[in-house]
Amino acid sequence: MTPEPNRADLHKDPKRVSGMFDEVAAGYDRTNDILSLGQDRLWRIATRDAVAPKAGERILDLAAGTGASSVALARSGAEVVAGDFSPGMIAEGRRRHGGIPNLSFVEADATNLPFADDEFDAVTISFGLRNVVDTAKALEEMLRVTKPGGRLVICEFSHPQSPVFAALYSFYNDRVLPVVAKVVSSNAEAYDYLNESIRDWPAQRPLMARIRQAGWTDVAYRDLTFGIVALHRAVKRSVSEAIAQEHDR
């Protein structure tokens, strides 16, 4: 008897979410490319440009999946750590990209990162923050492992601000995507969760507020593909700025 596919829900139990991604790891990138109509490639380029990796930097790419985004960062000469809490994704990433210089894969829980304080020049997470059980804790952990003056880039599904485009997007997600997912994905039910998690996720400005509350500064965002996706950026205070803030209190 074939076991039922693993399906996460909005409680975001880490074991169920991780298990769901384990099941879709092999075909994950191809499925995303089809379902996004190729837009995922453009989102990856925009994220890489926002991170602006430089040779000699140390960068953490969280929710890295099979490492598609990590490879682009590593090509800059930066040392890139691809972190994901799905063992299946990490295994697939190592199989595909294990020989790339400056790129390593680490199993990592965003709410309890296995790294030292002030270790990375930049931290980025793409399409993974909304799957974390505790968003605030994850943002605080990212801040902890980032060097003073370092940067954060979050690429995540968001909410189109045009009512007309929002209606078209909702129609695609509710009517078209589930049908296509049944054809191209090994676990179509995982994409039902995708729709639920996008609807439940905060819009652009509320997410900015959450990032600020975690301690990040200079928080800004820009929409990609009419707001289907938003690219949020922030900076960790430098040592001098932190001292000045304490002095002003």
From TrEMBL:
S-adenosyl-L-methionine binds at residues 66, 84, 109-110, 126. It catalyses: a 2-demethylmenaquinol + S-adenosyl-L-methionine = a menaquinol + S-adenosyl-L-homocysteine + H(+). Keywords: Menaquinone biosynthesis, Methyltransferase, S-adenosyl-L-methionine, Transferase. Pathway: Quinol/quinone metabolism; menaquinone biosynthesis; menaquinol from 1,4-dihydroxy-2-naphthoate: step 2/2. SUPFAM superfamilies: S-adenosyl-L-methionine-dependent methyltransferases (SSF53335). InterPro entries: SAM-dependent_MTases_sf, UbiE/COQ5_MeTrFase, UbiE/COQ5_MeTrFase_CS. It holds the Pfam family Ubie_methyltran. One of its GO terms (molecular function) is demethylmenaquinone methyltransferase activity. It comes from the Bacteria. This is Demethylmenaquinone methyltransferase. It comes from Microbacterium rhizosphaerae. The lineage of its organism: Bacteria, Bacillati, Actinomycetota, Actinomycetes, Micrococcales.
